[in-house]
Design brief:
The protein is of the alpha+beta class and 137 residues long. It has 2 domains: 1-80; 93-137, no CATH class. The chain contains 3 helices and 4 strands; from the N terminus they run ββαββαα. It has helices at residues 26-39, 105-118, 124-136; strands spanning 2-4, 9-17, 44-58, 64-76. It has a 4-stranded antiparallel sheet. 13% of the residues are buried. Pfam families: YecR (PF13992).
């Protein structure tokens, strides 16, 4: 995920490898983009420019073996920087849990993903690294 707060744009990207057909869930991408836009003080997000597919690695026969599909979203609505959340600080690790075992593993993962989606200024690579770290737990 990338984009520009100043321009009110969010880029959602999906990496694919050989033998994978890139299928993008546009509604899921819009939900994530909308969440990012709201952190920046906008009301909503809408897709513009369509899907862009790039090949980053080609094998000896001319087949794409690694690439990326990107969809760009425009943040719409207010955009009042005064109401935007400028930074997001994750909760300290030392905070006590409400009760042992009170969250299921999946609920905890979803909360971590939601928290990651609220962060600003992450490169796409850093976002992917953190996302994979959460999902792998």
């Amino acid at each position: 995920m990338g984009g520009s707060r100043a321009d009110g744009t969010v880029d959602m990207a999906y990496d694919f490898r050989q033998f994978e057909k890139p299928v993008v869930n546009v509604e899921q991408a819009k939900t994530i983009a909308k969440s990012k836009c709201r952190v920046w003080g906008y009301q909503d997000a809408e897709m513009f420019g369509g899907k862009r597919q790039q090949c980053h690695q080609i094998d000896g026969w001319g087949n794409c073996v690694a690439g990326q599909v990107t969809i760009q979203f425009q943040c719409i609505g207010s955009g009042d920087s005064g109401s935007a959340i400028s930074t997001y600080a994750p909760a300290p690790n030392s905070a006590p849990a409400a009760a042992p075992g009170s969250l299921s593993r999946e609920t905890w993962k979803q909360q971590q993903i939601d928290q990651l989606n609220r962060e600003t200024g992450l490169s796409y690579e850093e976002y992917q690294r953190r996302y994979r770290e959460i999902v792998g737990q």
